[in-house]
Amino acid sequence: MSTSSPLLSRRSFGRIAAGIAGAAGTGALAACSARGGTPSADTPLRIMAINHVWSQAVRRRKKEFEERIGRRVSMTLLTADQLTSSYNVKLNASGTDVDVMMVRALQDQLVFSHNSWLADLTDRVEGDAHFDWQDFQKAPRDASVTAGQVLSVPVVTERPVLYYRRDLVESIGGPPRTLEALMAGADELAARKKGFYGYVGRGQRNGAVSQWSSFLYSHGGDFVVRGKSGIGSAEALAAYEYYGKLLARTGPPGATNMSLEQAMPIFAQGKAAFYIDADAIYSSFLDPKISTVRESVGFAPFPAGPAGAVPHNIASWSLGISTFSRLRDDAWEFIKWAAGPEMSTTLQSEGIPGARASVWADPKTLAAFPADLAEAMRVNAARGRGYDRPRVLQVGRARDIVGRPLVAGILGQSVPPVARDADAEFADFLVRDNRHKES
């Protein structure tokens, strides 16, 4: 669900940040000058987070944590773009006014690690038996590790789910279990009614890549294979052509301009038979204020392709500790509390999908979700791969390159020449990106 945002390396951003920090005046200087001192008891623990249902739920409960540690907690909720901008300015200036950071492990963590902005949590997560690091699902847990160090703890996870109209699929044998059946079903249902679409999904060049990843894996491909570009492989080409054909033949006009925000309302308003996107948005289809399909929407696991059903299972948001924090011990106490087994159980019982395997195995927490959705989420998590985009420093640029053949397919253009060109560009990009990692 999270969108890409450009993040610059500490060196390249330094000149810009210096200007912004200078304009900030004495506040930034005071933060830097105080860095070496011991924080007083009235210094708040400062948490920066995305404005998300998880963050909102935790903020409502922060008094409980404040009483536990005897320190006030300041929790700022921002949009993704605002959060990225704040991190760039504050952390390039080595500011001490951020303690706990809510981050996207797959979008931000490599560059944050490169810039030395995240504290190593390895000893903390592995040394606390009650916290039980091994209880976190393997895919999100693996994404928390960079260069052998645990730099974040996953708190919100997501997988793709097949949303479908129960009232329509009965005539075609139920929800499709394979991508082949999805194509056939979307074709048939799209042909029955003018202005009605068989399938709707993201088609925007950059934004579609994360959802297309599951189609890529299920065709047997990957973004990077043995350190080299994998988007020119026969498997990737088949995934590009499949996805392009699905939207070109059965989707709405203007699909190449559609992100989550444009695609979701089409299904919610009853104008499409099938839709694949993040399971975290399911409640939108049950809300009578925005959905006309609340009585007919169904949920199913990601359909199987030639290589089986291989969806992504990712940590969409995680918690880390700033290396410049002067309250690292209290920051870790917050992570232990907010991502611990008790809070994870409580929040998932409210319908917020977490990252702990034990919580997913608890029938009480799954009761918060529609039964078929809970089963789809469980199945997808067991099959899932822990990333939905290339794992590189410059994620936004990589998604732009990878997404180009997607657009060509949706527009009905010949995909092979565009994929060959994108493959060559991505191969060159990977060489340059790896150089940045080493600099």
Please tell me about this protein's structure.
With 439 residues, the chain is α/β, with parallel strands linked by helices. It has 2 domains: 219 residues, D-Maltodextrin-Binding Protein, domain 2 (3-Layer(aba) Sandwich), CATH 3.40.190; 199 residues, Periplasmic binding protein-like II (D-Maltodextrin-Binding Protein, domain 2). It is 46% helix and 13% strand. Strands 2-1-3-13-6 form a 5-stranded mixed beta sheet. The radius of gyration is 22 Å and the shape is globular. The relative contact order is 0.17.
Name the CATH superfamily assignment of the largest domain. Periplasmic binding protein-like II
Compute the gyration radius: what is it?
A: 22 Å
Strand order of the largest sheet: 2-1-3-13-6
Q: CATH fold name of the largest domain, please?
A: D-Maltodextrin-Binding Protein, domain 2
InterPro entries: Bact_solute-bd_prot1 (IPR050490), SBP (IPR006059), TAT_signal (IPR006311)
Protein name: Sugar ABC transporter substrate-binding protein
Q: Concise description?
A:
The protein has 439 residues and is of the alpha/beta class. It has helices at residues 10-23, 26-33, 53-60, 62-69, 80-92, 109-114, 122-126, 138-143, 166-169, 179-190, 209-218, 234-250, 260-268, 328-338, 341-349, 357-360, 363-366, 371-383, 395-410, 415-438, and strands spanning 45-50, 73-78, 100-103, 145-146, 149-150, 153-158, 160-165, 197-200, 224-225, 228-229, 272-278, 297-300, 314-321. Strand 9 (224-225) and strand 10 form a beta hairpin.
